[in-house]
């Protein structure tokens, strides 16, 4: 099965040589999403909310929902923000949340506070 590039203008366009998402063999790989405008305020909860909305728009473009997500990766500038991001993130998964890891990193693109990538399955 050939890969299919997923793109929506409702989420930020890639800022480098990558796709918003790629679908292959009933799996959707969503590139790490950041919140560009919200990053200017430094409010990690606003950033996390916008990131999750970006992911939602990409899922919709692929014909999927948050319920299709089986794995996510969260990258934080500061692990001290874990509880705040977790609060926002958890609101998108009422039942059966996906597998996940959360790691602190030295720096993120555009100096944002949080980046999230996901894998979803049809």
Automatic annotation (TrEMBL):
<dbReference type="InterPro" id="IPR006175">
    <property type="entry name" value="YjgF/YER057c/UK114"/>
</dbReference>
<dbReference type="Pfam" id="PF01042">
    <property type="entry name" value="Ribonuc_L-PSP"/>
</dbReference>
<dbReference type="InterPro" id="IPR006056">
    <property type="entry name" value="RidA"/>
</dbReference>
<dbReference type="GO" id="GO:0005829">
    <property type="term" value="C:cytosol"/>
</dbReference>
<comment type="similarity">
    <text>Belongs to the RutC family.</text>
</comment>
<dbReference type="GO" id="GO:0019239">
    <property type="term" value="F:deaminase activity"/>
</dbReference>
<dbReference type="InterPro" id="IPR035959">
    <property type="entry name" value="RutC-like_sf"/>
</dbReference>
<protein>
    <submittedName>
        <fullName>Reactive intermediate/imine deaminase</fullName>
    </submittedName>
</protein>
